[in-house]
Design brief:
Layout lengths: L1 H31 L2 E3 L8 E8 L2 E3 L2 E4 L5 E7 L6 E5 L4 E5 L4 E6 L5 E6 L16 E6 L1
């Protein structure tokens, strides 16, 4: 009578362990972010869609070519929290309301690394950027 119980509990523990390991690995992948290289379309525009969540951009590493227009579709998947998308050196600043999708267009002329981030914050709390809402645009 005891044996099946022991093996059942062992099995349950193994399943829980596997789920935990899978969950931790999935989280690690999310933290590592995603990198994409944009290819110009037939019209010469380099397009990508970025998903905004609290507090991340996905993908959060983009590589583009200098001198060609970049068009980013920014899609927020939050229900309440508003975000934005800022590249200070390129004078890009775009608000993205909760659950909204907006496009932002700019043409980077100067090769180099640029950071994009969200500077939203609640009064005394850290900004979204400080919570990790930051990405990198590599202009080549
Ligand atoms: Cu934000």
């Amino acid at each position: 009578m005891n044996k099946p119980c022991v093996s059942r509990s062992l099995w349950a523990r193994t399943v829980i362990w596997i789920v935990l390991v899978a969950w931790v690995n999935a989280a690690a992948v999310a933290w590592a972010g995603e990198a994409v290289t944009l290819e110009p379309g037939t019209d010469g525009v380099q397009r990508a869609t970025i998903t905004l969540d609290s507090y991340s951009y996905s993908p959060d590493r983009l590589t583009v070519q200098a001198g060609k227009p970049v068009e980013l579709t920014l899609t927020s998947v939050t229900t309440i929290t508003p975000h934005n998308f800022i590249i200070k050196e390129l004078t890009v600043e775009q608000d993205v309301g909760a659950g909204k999708t907006v496009t932002v267009r700019f043409t980077p002329m100067q090769p180099g690394p640029y950071l994009f981030y969200c500077d939203k914050k609640l009064l005394f709390l850290p900004s979204h950027r400080e919570k990790g809402m930051e990405g990198r645009l590599e202009v080549r």
